[in-house]
Amino acid sequence: MGNTNLEYKEYLANENNFSKGRNGYKIKKVTVHHMAGVLTAKQCGNIFQDPNRLASSNYGIGKNGEVGLYVNEEDTSYADANLKSNRTSVTIECSNSETGGDWKVSDKVLNKLIELISDIFKRNGITKAIKGETVTWHSMYSQTECPRGLFTFENGLYL
What we know:
By secondary structure, the protein is α/β, with parallel strands linked by helices.
């Protein structure tokens, strides 16, 4: 399994913010989140280094398209507010290109997200991207609007 083959920097989350292992569960999907801000991968990673945060994500894609690793894929991030979902998904935070409104995401972030999802799928034997099944989003698991509007991209695409 391992982590992504894409170039990334490590900004590892505090050990209070994730669980070691996946308790016997296999990775079956990717869950997409938005950062609710225009952040770099490092800035997002700094948030998960706070031991009182009690939240994390496996990866983040910063405003410039850079990838940050916060929690190794073999471990369970605390992202979806749903334990089974956390154990069966690789979670990805994406920087917005604007704050408020539709919380849009740039094409650069979208393209890197597609690359990262493709890499995760290949390494974990996921053969097809199916909206709501193998590609999910935070609001499917908790009372949140994350990612707002099911992801509105600058190019008008909606996820």
